[in-house]
Amino acid sequence: MSLQQGFNIKVLQVKNEVDRNNLQQSNELDFILFSSLEEKLFDKTVSSDDASVILPSFNWNPLNELKKLNQSFQVIGFSCPPYVIIDDDNLTGLDVELIKLILLNWPIHFRILKGITNPYKNMEAILRNRTADMSSCGAWLTMKLFVSKSGLTPTYTEQCFTFLVHKPNRLPEATFMFQCFQLSLWFFISCSICFLVVYITIIQRFSSGKKIGMEESFILILNRLVGNSFEEEYTSRSRVLKYILLLWRVCSFLIMTYYSAGLPPYYNDLQINSVNDMVKMNIHWLERQSDNLKAYVRSFGGIYEAIADLFIFEKNTTVINMKIRNGKFAIPVESLPGRGLGYHEFLDEYGKEHMKVLPECLMKLHSVYVMQTNSPFQHFISRKILEVISHGFLEILFKKTVDKKHKKTVEGYYSIYIGELNNLLSLSKIQGGFWFILFGWILGLVCLINEKNRK
Predict the structure, then answer these.
(1) C-beta separation of 53 from 44 below 8 A
(2) Do both 299 and 355 map to the same domain?
(3) Does the pLDDT value for residue 353 go beyond 80?
(4) Whether 295 and 410 share a structural domain
């Protein structure tokens, strides 16, 4: 049929999906125009402001289209663990595995940007030039990076924008027996007891003329603590007081052994546990990718303005690793569900050991994939992402893609103090506890021998 003969156009009322399928398989009409105002007849990804034109003998498939054009699906990204992890030329990560899952059997090519200080702006330019189909590694939705000019997929994970701050140091090992109290308090208690013992011994000898030993003076102190006077003969309660003294020694022995083993964390540095602590302690944060982040954080007002004033843009990672050594600088990172962590890969060994995740979320970010404007693949990929999320595959992919080395590094950032994971039970502290126990037994043996000799 030529165009001059005109089209065979009819207006029909379609009541259900069966009528729609029958019309699609019919050859009586040249084309069928469905109004998308009837939402029940269309896929949820189709906008209600558009119209869907379906030709009878035409079935568009994204995979077939790529094969026909002999092209691959181009994904742009950079090294951004845990989304994209580059290890010995092997490409893994949450984004890599998720894209492979939703685009099963598609010819996919991952284009990785290397040696670029601001990769987000470069990915923005690449998508606008239409030399790639989709980007990865991004919290694009909340960061408002060219969102209005590009296609977006649904949010596939939520992130927490927070900081890596300096961990506190534990008390030195030489003071293991003072971990349960401050050293000054222990010194005061020891001196006061010694003074009382000496004082009571002298008073008893001058007042009664009896020769009284230090042990009896110590028992008199305990006798006084339970509400009795010094003049009362302690012999009537000698057995009870000895039991009390024995119980006190056992409890002291257990407490000192417990703390000397280094089990509970005690610190000699100020701890940073909130954004307010950062403001009070004047902790600056070093951003290396975007100098626009300061204005974005300030736009939220309140405490965010004070945090924005502490912003320093520094794109040299070597300088950043040097500055964090004085404990007055923080690093912005993104914390993911399941103790995932992003944008920390540039830190050296010092940073991995001495930095921890701030237990407070400054703002919530949402990860989406950004695609070309009016991309023919957008609706298909969006539907696949929703299917993956609804079936709970995202958590499985995260556990699968993050290797043991990365997990160990991330666990170190979530530890509270320096050396927590490696030295939870420090051998030197356990040895210190052993020598403390041995000293106590020797002292007890000397007292026992002395008591027998006096009898």
Answers:
(1) no
(2) yes
(3) yes
(4) yes
